[in-house]
């Protein structure tokens, strides 16, 4: 049986504190690139599985909300509305924001968009986002120059987004670049989410896509990124943040019911929960099963 069908009976308190609602499901996006029907079906299955405590939002382009609405008709046994994060195109932002509000009005019993994601490369775009995001939504901006724009996000009431990889090797930032981004967010008190390239728990080499002949690349691990965020928020040295991002063995991390430890650093469950609520909000992955199976294989869940 798969890990999703036959989970381990116990989850350490520290793993639960670090990973609750951490995985935003982006099955519509490469390399999975599933159909809407497939992605919605998967999310419904994950929503009801034992590991659902790790599941975050369903990620969809705002331009495909009509498709999502149609697919939701087939979903059964929705005990509470799904949380949805919508990617908004700056080229059609007015129309897409209007569609998001209308989608919520029509589908509140099944799914609610409560998070928005933008790409931002100019001050004018940043100003537009700050002025037009409806009340009650969290808005994340993937910015072209973090050193310039991250410090501006806090006064605009916006959050940051960092791309951790993709289907080509050039999309993977270096550990030093990720450490710099985390330092900028920590200094400015800007929460962030990560996206792309984080299918795997620990930094390691994997195929870039699911094709049989896919090239392989050294990918960031989501445990590395979340713990690097904890170090950055604790004003650790840049060298330590880079080192935890570069760690390639799960045995370097020590999980128990009260804390996670790495080298001389230790984070209690309350710290981990605050980290997730106020700083490292989630990471997007086009697979939910892969992270779950890896965590099970590592005996972390």
Summary keywords:
301 residues, alpha/beta, TIM Barrel, 22% strand
Written overview of the protein:
This protein has one domain (13-297): TIM Barrel (Alpha-Beta Barrel), CATH 3.20.20.70. Helices cover 39% and strands 22% of the residues. The protein contains eleven helices and 13 strands. An eight-stranded parallel barrel has the order 1-2-3-4-5-6-7-13, surrounded by eight helices. Strands 10-11-12 form a three-stranded antiparallel β-sheet. Helix 1 packs parallel to helix 10 (269-278), helix 6 runs parallel beside helix 7 and helix 8 packs across helix 10. The mean pLDDT is 94.
Helix/strand order: HEHEHEHEHEHEHEEEHHEEEHEH
Count of helices? Answer: 11
Which CATH-level-2 architecture?
A: Alpha-Beta Barrel
**CATH H-level superfamily:** Aldolase class I
Tell how many strands the DSSP assignment holds.
Answer: 13
**What is the C-level CATH assignment?**
Alpha Beta
How is the main sheet built?
A: 8 strands, parallel, barrel
**Rg calc:** 19 Å
């Amino acid at each position: 049986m798969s890990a999703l069908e036959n989970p381990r009976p116990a989850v350490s308190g520290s793993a639960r504190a670090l990973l609750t609602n951490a995985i935003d499901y982006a099955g519509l996006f490469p390399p999975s690139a599933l159909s809407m029907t497939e992605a919605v079906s998967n999310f419904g299955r994950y929503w009801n599985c034992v590991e659902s405590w790790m599941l975050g939002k369903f990620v969809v382009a705002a331009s495909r909300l009509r498709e999502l609405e149609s697919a939701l008709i087939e979903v059964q046994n929705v005990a509470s509305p799904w949380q949805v994060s919508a990617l908004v195109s700056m080229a059609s932002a007015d129309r897409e924001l209007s569609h998001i509000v209308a989608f919520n009005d029509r589908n509140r019993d099944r799914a609610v968009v409560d998070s928005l994601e933008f790409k931002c490369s100019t001050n004018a775009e940043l100003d537009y986002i700050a002025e037009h995001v409806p009340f009650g939504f969290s808005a994340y901006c993937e910015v072209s120059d973090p050193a310039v724009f991250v410090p501006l996000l806090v006064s605009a009431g916006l959050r940051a987004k960092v791309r951790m990889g993709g289907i080509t090797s050039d999309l993977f930032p270096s550990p030093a670049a990720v450490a710099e981004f985390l330092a900028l967010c920590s200094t400015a008190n800007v929460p962030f989410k990560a996206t792309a390239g984080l299918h795997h728990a620990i930094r390691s080499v994997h195929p870039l896509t699911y094709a049989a002949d896919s090239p392989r690349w050294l990918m960031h691990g989501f445990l590395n990124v979340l713990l690097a965020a904890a170090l950055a928020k604790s004003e650790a040295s840049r060298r330590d943040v880079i080192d935890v991002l570069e760690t390639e063995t799960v045995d370097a991390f020590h999980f128990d019911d009260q804390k996670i430890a790495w080298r001389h650093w230790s984070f209690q469950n309350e710290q981990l929960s605050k980290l997730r609520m106020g700083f490292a909000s989630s990471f997007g992955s086009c697979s939910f099963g892969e992270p779950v199976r890896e965590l099970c294989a590592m005996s972390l869940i």
